[in-house]
Amino acid sequence: MTRAHPFHVAAGALAAGLLSSNERPAVTAAVAVGLGGAVVLSRWSGFVPKNGTNPDHLSALAVGAVLLGAVVGDARLHALDASIGRVREARVEDLRVHLLSVPRPNPFGASAEVEVVSGRLRGNRLLMRIARWTRLPHSIELGAELAADGEVRPFRAEGDSGFADQLRRAGIAGELLLDRARATGRRRGGVAGALDAMRRRAQEAVAAGLPPPEAALARGMVLGQDEQIDETTRQDWRDSGLSHLLAVSGQNVMLLVALAMPLLALVRMRPLARGLALLGLIALYVPLAGAGPSLQRAGVMGAAGIAAMTLSRPASRWYALLLAACATLALNPRVSADPGWQLSFAAVAGILALGRPLAAILARAGEELTTTGVARALVRGLAEGVSITVAATLATAPLVAFHFGAVPLVGLLANVLALPAVAPAMWLGMVKAALGLVGTVAPPAEELAGMLGPAARIPLAHLNGLAERCAGIQGGRLALPLQSPVDVGAVYLLIAASIAAVRVVASRRRPRASIRAGLAERAAAWRRAPRAFRVAVLVLALTLLALATATGLGSPAPPGDLTVRFLDVGQGDATLVQDGHGATALFDAGPPEGAVYRQLRAAGVRRLDLAVSTHQSRDHQGGFHDLIRRMPIGLLLTNGYGTRDADYQRLIAEAGSHHIRHVPAESGELLRVGRITVEILGPRPRPPGAPPPEDPNPIGVAAIVSQGGFDLWLSADAESDAILAYPLRPVEAMKVSHHGSADPGLPDVLDRLRPKIAAIEVGAQNTYGHPTPSTLAALEHAGVAAYRTDQDGTVTLTVTHGTMRVATER
After folding, report:
1. Pseudo-torsion of CA 640, 645, 650, 656, nearest 10°?
2. Domain at 86-188: CATH architecture
3. Cα–Cα distance between 795 and 574 in angstroms, integer?
4. What average pLDDT does range 444-465 have in this prediction?
5. Rg (CA), the chain
6. CATH 3.60.15.10 in the chain, residue ranges
7. pLDDT value at residue 774
8. Which pLDDT tens digit goes with each residue over 110-135?
9. I need a surface site. Which of 78, 304, 591, 693 has the fewest CB within 10 A?
10. Using an 8 Å Cβ cutoff, are 187 and 193 in contact?
11. Alpha-carbon torsion (482, 485, 491, 492), positive or negative
């Protein structure tokens, strides 16, 4: 017989009403009638409410809660829509805004969230778009007031842009296309201003004593400020299934409470005072860390649990979860469409439904095989961590597939291996943040925060290295495109049915008592075995586990033959040459989001002997910024050609800071890289005093790479009008210039090069129409076997004893 508390029914019905307010009134009515009818009809299945509540009364309570939720949600939606409706397309001058987020870089410049504090849009939040050529005032911080000139406009019509819909759900009413901005010297005041100041101090303290990459990770993990994490690192964490660690969530609240409770007990606080202190910490931490949907949910659940503990009441995790749903939906009913909100609630529901039973089974099995208290405590901790990871991964998999098109299969392994480092990284970061806040009245605390930096770097570096290696595992992602919510629901039903079937089969095949007896018998035999034997078995098991982990996560060995890889980096160029004896040369590194570093690791590259940046273009040199930080480079060959390009200047500065030798490419230069010879044919020297060209494509580095009887032609984006002037000779293979763009002189180039194989490095569904039909026709007419990275993925050309073999990724 099932027993349910009326509060659970009321909270669930209220959440259902808030959810339905985002749809039509008919949906609300259907939900109310359906839920009320379900409560009444459930009496026939043995349903008995707690406290003797009449089922008819409970049905009325459910219907009333649904309708109340719909009314509250509808009122809240009207308030949000009224704010959005005030935004009209118009030019603005001297518009005063407060900066609410750190500008986040993107391919077109940067963007930041601001709040308008003057004029008719006062109180509206806008997305400020900052073009690459727009300069912001130096040293602006969160909460700073800016005087902005530009254009304000609403987002496109509902449904036209998924990103715009996401911003609307977050309460952002429109966008500000910034032309100019100046700092007024003023900041936000009141509670918001005080919170800004605390956030700045916490951010500085968390980053103190850490190198920039680890500092960016620490700010993301502890404070949710992930703007400074580079795109390649972000993609590594996403593909490895660890990206949830970079967004503050329920795990942060749980670890905060776990850190604070023993400290509060140590100072002999009474239970009531201890509970109030924990509630105060949560109330401070949630807005300090950004108050995202998942953190709001965690804050409400944590507060409910602490309140129950303080009042000596039994805590109901399901009730706390329902309360969290009501609170977050009451703030913004549209938040239910946010992937972060959905994943957060799905993960917690999975942990409550599956994680705890699984943890009990694993802990019971492990404790049967251990004899000491310490070992049993370790087993219980490991069982808890593994079961939570398994349950959360399984519960969120359908939603991850629906929103992102693939499920990171390697995520389960990555999260289990990350377990030992997550808590130390979080706790050290939280302690550093607390020291930063205390530092306003006790300056030595700030110095102590910096001293903790080296200790915090250890778990952060472990997590980052783990993300890099797991993201690079072949087949680590399972493409599982779920097209509609119906598909998602069907997968959840299939998972539930599978779990139920396993339980039924297991109970029929062997009674639970006999399973326990079997475990006890094996445990007794294990304890009777000689101590030396048990130690030897454990050492052997740990050794095999370490070898398996190192084999799966380590870099493969470099190839034993001359190998050329035309890397699939999207709409960009990156060509890797390996001489078969350990020497490597890379021509261009693609765009920043191309993740060329990951492909180099998969190719067995641990060090680049030569890196060539052919010209100043984001899709060629953008990936070098990340590569310089991650991998040793012997020589960087650059092609400034007098450019004043800011990104090129940053590249040179980064190479210098990492002590990488860099020299300009010169026509006629001959370089030796292991057994590879690189002959630079272009560009021609720039005339003295001549300004840099507006178009850098024609002056891209053109070279012939040779080893033995094999020659490879590489010319970046330089087309026939530039390269026909070079002393060309027949080659075996080539990279087609400029991603296969239209080039009337290409037939003449092919007639002089006479390649057998050609590769076109081009992004799928690019907006440029690359490769063009004329280019493909010219290659076919010349009898050249052409491969395309947009269709074939990475194209690998191997030369063995003069024989060429081509392999494609797909």
Report:
1. 20
2. Beta Barrel (2.40)
3. 11
4. 90
5. 31
6. 562-686+696-808
7. 95
8. 888 899 998 888 888 899 998 877 87
9. 78
10. yes
11. positive
Closest CA to 757 of 487, 566, 610: 566
Which of 416, 406, 453 lies closest to 433 in space, CA to CA?
453
Contact assessment for residue 47 and residue 32, using Cβ atoms and an 8 Å cutoff: no
Q: Which residues contact 16 (CB under 8 A, 6 or more apart)?
A: 31, 35, 66, 69
Which tens digit of pLDDT belongs to each residue from 603-627? 889 899 999 999 988 899 999 998 9
Per the model's pLDDT, the better-predicted residue between 367 and 136 turns out to be: 136
Secondary structure of 396-414 as H, E, C letters: HHHHHHHHHCEEECCHHHH
Q: Which residues contact 614 (CB under 8 A, 6 or more apart)?
A: 573, 587, 588, 620, 621, 639, 665, 700, 701, 716, 717
Around Cβ 501, how many Cβ atoms within 10 Å? 10
Name the amino acid, one letter, at 599.
Q
**Looking at the chain, which residues constitute the CATH 2.40.50 domain(s)?**
86-188
DSSP state, residue 692: P
CATH of domain 562-686+696-808: 3.60.15.10
671-688 residue pLDDT tens = 999 999 999 998 888 877
Question: pTM for the full model?
Answer: 0.73
Tens digit of pLDDT for each residue in 564-574?
A: 999 999 999 99
Q: What residues form DSSP beta bridges with 3?
A: 48
| Per-residue tokens: 276 | 């109030």
Distance CA 457, CA 607 (A): 23
> What does the pLDDT read at residue 158?
46
Place of tokens 């990284």: 425
